[in-house]
Specification:
Length: about 300
């Protein structure tokens, strides 16, 4: 479905990114496998993981090159796109998958823990997309797939940095879809449920946490890859600005914020009137303080 396309997959040295890179190559794409080879918290550098995935792809008869530039830096992200141009002569799609975790309850979160996660996830998605956008505009085509998360779309404990970045990515994707529609460029999001090194870092101190992690452990990264391949293919030409989740064999279309209920007062509102009339009328539609696991409460098969 993606025969001959040149695709950048960031964070592709393992987990979901590796599965997507392998699937892209299997379906005919030429792949830039980007990964700096860092630990889950972003520490360290190792060219090995990216090259190992490239070796896997080549062993199967596919075309791939390794890249170890850092998505969190604008100049470095530009080099990632340059790698595709130098290696394959074009760039057709980017999959913004690179990410790190530095989980901490909000009142304990440091500035560095906030900054580092925002820079890799949100800035990284921006930098790589922005570098590719110039070429997409010139050629009149292109596709972007960004990884969001229900931690941001719904909520979760101890992940203010990650959740803010992931919800920001959903808004970034929608803005790209709107701004670049006239250039035939599409932008969509996937909220993946799959076992990865990042998921593996979730604490399992309580029985509830252990049960949750055990369920996710059963969802393999390979389940995410088919949707990513589809979204960059020409078959998805009418799919733009959407958010999907994948849980094992289940694909969901995720809602986007819209007005739920309104109340009008012709003479305007005072704080007292809001307390006495507006809030009681709206309260029935309030959202509970749900977490992702509360909303996705059933086991996918």
């Amino acid at each position: 479905m993606v025969e001959g396309k040149a695709v950048v997959v960031t964070g592709a040295g393992g987990g979901i990114g590796r599965a997507i890179a392998l699937a892209m190559a299997q379906h005919g794409a030429r792949v830039v496998v980007n990964d700096i080879g860092a630990a889950v918290d972003g520490a360290g550098r190792d060219a090995g993981p990216a090259q190992q995935v490239v070796d896997e792809i080549r062993a199967l008869g596919g075309h791939a090159v390794a890249n170890t530039d850092n998505v969190a830096d604008a100049a470095s992200a530009t080099r990632i796109i340059g790698c595709a141009l130098d290696s394959f002569g074009r760039i057709d799609a980017v999959v913004n998958n690179a990410g790190i975790l530095r989980d901490r309850f909000f009142h304990k979160m440091s500035v560095d823990e906030w900054d580092s996660v925002i820079k890799v996830h949100l800035y990284g998605s921006y930098h790589v997309s922005r570098a590719a956008a110039v070429f997409f505009k010139e050629q009149g085509s292109g596709a972007m797939v960004h990884m969001t998360s229900t931690s941001g779309l719904i909520g979760n404990f101890g992940q203010a940095n990650y959740a803010a970045a992931k919800l920001g990515i959903a808004a970034l994707s929608k803005s790209i879809a709107l701004d670049m529609l006239k250039f035939n460029v599409r932008s969509n999001c996937i909220a993946p449920f799959a076992w990865s090194r990042m998921i593996g870092s979730i604490p399992t101190d309580t029985e509830e946490q252990r049960v949750r992690v055990d369920k996710i452990r059963q969802m393999t990264p390979a389940k995410i890859a088919p949707l990513a391949v589809y979204l960059i293919s020409d078959a998805a030409r009418e799919v733009n600005g959407q958010i999907f989740s994948v849980r094992n064999n289940e694909i969901s279309l995720i809602s986007q914020p819209r007005p739920l209920r309104s109340i009008h007062r012709s003479e305007g509102w005072t704080p007292q009137a809001i307390a006495e009339h507006a809030m009681p009328a709206l309260r029935a539609s309030f959202f509970a303080l749900d977490r992702s696991a509360d909303v996705f409460s059933w086991d996918p098969v």
